[in-house]
Amino acid sequence: MWRDAVLVAGKDLRIEARSRVALWQVLPFAMLALVLFAFALGPGPDALRRAAPGLFWLAVLFSTVLATQRSYAVESGEGTRDGLRLSGLDPAGIFLGKAAAVFVQLALLEVVLWVGVTLLFGVRVHTTWLAVVACLLATVGLASAGVVYGALSAGLRVRETLLPLLVLPVVAPVLLAGSRAWSAAMSGAVASGVGWLRILAPFAVVYLAVGVALYGPLQEAA
Amino acid sequence: MNPALRRGIGLAALASTAATVWLGLWVTPPSVQQGNLVRLVYLHPAIAWDALYVAFGLSAVCSLLYLWRRTRSLFWDRLAAASVEVGVVFNALTLVTGSIWGRPTWGVWWTWDARLTSTALLLVLFLGYLALRRVPAEPEVRARRCAVAALVAFVDVPIVHFSVNWWQTLHQNATVLNADLSPTIHGSMAWTLLLSFVALTLAFVWMVTVRYDIEVMRDQVGEEELEVSLAERWAEAQAAEPVMAGAGLPEGSAPPSPPTSGPAPLDPVLRPGEPAGSGR
Amino acid sequence: MSYVDAGYAIALSVLFAYSVGLVARRRRLARAVAVAAEDDAFASAATVAAVEGESGGDEPARGGGG
User: Fold this and answer.
1) Which residues from C are below 8 Å from B85, CB to CB?
2) Which of B18, A10, A172 is nearest to C15 (CA)?
3) Closest Cα partner for B110 from A20, A118, C25, C30?
4) Any idea where the domains of chain B sit in the sequence?
5) Which residues of C touch B101 (CB under 8 A)?
6) Which is higher by pLDDT, B228 or B98?
7) Main-chain dihedrals φ then ψ at residue A185, nearest 5 degrees
8) d(CA A15, CA A101)
9) Which chains touch A (3 or more CB pairs under 8 A)?
10) ipTM field
């Protein structure tokens, strides 16, 4: 399973490295989201500063939807999905590989967004490790949930509109906990921040497990 | 473009930029209001002007010329694309130099004032154009798409300016930035400022010509690769048994992986505009 | 390092790096065009040979040059 995961992750990341869709579409979209948030809440710095943690995570969530859609779009060619199914790769491995690839893309995106939020909204993170851990845990959860729902909606023609509708409610706890954790990280309130990590971590674990367990049947169904 | 002319422009750009830097950093005096910070005036305004007016204005004009039947030619499309890419680089640099100038002047790296906001939005608008351009398509189809996108973006510019200005004036703290970035300029400073505009515009022109060549060659390589692949395929089909060739796994939108077995997948059709780096 | 120095350094290095990148890209593409043109000629020759290797006539003669 692990070897298959590495294989699939490598394939997805290599495709991204060559086509650079995430770089040219998802990343600008995330930056655009930040600008739009400023349009909605600015120009005064106060509202933006207060809302910064939530806005960061909103941008991450929307980007997750895009990244997940892209993860499945690369296999939308005729027969590609069947080929993957018939290839004999362990479905759990495929899931882990795809989730890992999405994780990497999201993690890099979050670094850029972090810089963006710091510069554009004028905030600073006080307790860096808290913010980093929150990001890592949340991203694992987002990637896993995203890939699971992506598989669910993969074959459907209404995938573009359906996937956000499916994924976003499910990852709402991540938005909630992540924003609170970041808010704590910005103000240095470590104790309450750690409390929110206790939501992010189980979410990540649960959705990893769900993906590993259910990806096989999901693949058959799609 | 005549290579000698291009080289001339490049050298002139290099020389004038070097002169600007020398004058700007050492020869010209510091200003009364801003001290040494004023030296950034020899970079930032010229970069901004080249990005916002020259680059994006040029791309709008080229897009119009492409769309108008009487002057339609891929030359305009490619020139527009080159102009936008260099423009985006200059745009990003405008924001960065402006931010660096703003930090010691205003105390913040960024603020959502009218000018900065408009510039930032313009950057995202034209990043979208570049993203659109990377989508594989026939040159004419892509040209038409991108020309429309450029014009739509460009038309938005005055609307953005107006609305963002209004947005700022309604906000009470609009006067934070009264310590404007535009200092009063005399004597040697004025000449250096003028030189900076010349230097950076020459650099811009040079970059656009090189980028234009790249755009032309990209399409050429795409076509060549397509023809080579077609010829190879044809030769294989002749040489092989008359069974179903092309049993390799189709790869959807993925670029060609190195052929592991069997014939290379016939997929340059999907990507006439891709750079040739991946080989065959 | 002062803000002015930083500003100049960043602006100039970005412009320089981008210029170098452009020249490198153009050089690489020029090579690719040359290679592809050669291959085109080679492949066409091979195709013509393949076509003529068959009993000519029936095959549509569109293999050459493309």
Assistant:
1) none
2) B18
3) A118
4) 3-168+191-221
5) 3, 7
6) B98
7) -65, -35
8) 10
9) B
10) 0.77
